[in-house]
TrEMBL record:
This is Diguanylate cyclase. It comes from Xaviernesmea rhizosphaerae. InterPro entries: Biofilm_reg_signaling, GGDEF_dom, Nucleotide_cyclase, PAC, PAS, PAS-assoc_C, PAS-like_dom_sf, Rev_trsase/Diguanyl_cyclase. Residues 205-337 form the GGDEF domain. It comes from the Bacteria. Keywords: Coiled coil. Residues 123-175 form the PAC domain. The keyword Coiled coil applies. SUPFAM superfamilies: Nucleotide cyclase, PYP-like sensor domain (PAS domain). Residues 25-52 form a coiled coil.
Amino acid sequence: MEKLVDKGALPAPQHGCFTNADTDLSGLERQLDMRDRQIQQLSAELAHLRRTFNHASAMARIGVWECSLADNCLTWSDVIYDMFEIPRTGRFNREEVLDLYTPASRAELDIKRAQAIADCGSFSMNAEIITRRGNRRWLRITASVDADEAGHPFRIFGMKQDITEERMHLNQIRELAENDMMTGLSNRARFQSVFSTFCEQHADGEAGLMLIDLDGFKGVNDTFGHPAGDACLKQVAMRLKIALGRSELVARVGGDEFAALVAPPVSLAEAEAMAWRVVEVLGAPMFYEGQPVVIGASVGLAFGGGAVGPSCLFRHADLALYAAKDAGRNRVCLYGADQAEMAGARSLRA
């Protein structure tokens, strides 16, 4: 008798048919491939952004930094290495970096950093450094402190920007605003801005003012022309810098008028000696295009500082200057009782 078989219970295998396990594995592979492509795309975008940031950072001369407060470990972007002229692959610690700051900038940095850490706050400042290669630079530093959930600071981070060129431009502008273009000395505006503070700082009356007026300068312009007069003023400025090297400020306050501020440790006797030295060096012949040019100088000297006030001190020095001219020029006159008696008869130029 023929045996019957239930063919529906054991289906015959067919070519090209996958099990559920095969299907799931194939789907996972596709997902992994997609994720790989996404990661590669994100990595490329991140690398592009990093390059863009580095280029922008380099152009703006701005770098990013952070410091772990647990071990003072520093992390810098490339630009900061370049600011300090430290090789990017070099090894260093925070103390070595701090040694590159000038003493004043380091002291200010220490104070502001400690306060920011104590307050979990922030600060900004301009600092001067001397790079590893010996170049002087100015940096603008901004910093903030991060704290954990318990309020304990754990890192300080921020930016550093090289502002050396900005600083140089500001100094040039300040120099143009405060210096006499002809002689290189301080100008009248600079003198006036310093004079009041100078007197306040010397309230004990030991500060002095020296006013210098050239004798015979008009004749130089009349005889040789204004170019000769300009050359003469430049030589006068050079000689004054030497003769008044111990003064706190030398300024050209008029066409042929100059002023100098003297204060301790320069004594009254030393100031008088400096004034006579001015008369001596300015009385020596000068030369223009090989021809000797002779002028002179009268000097008025007064002391009083904050004890008399800036207006009164200038008035006293001015009276002494007139007395020197009345006495025959090319001499020094110290303000005293004789000049005080003449005060009502003089028109003052201050």
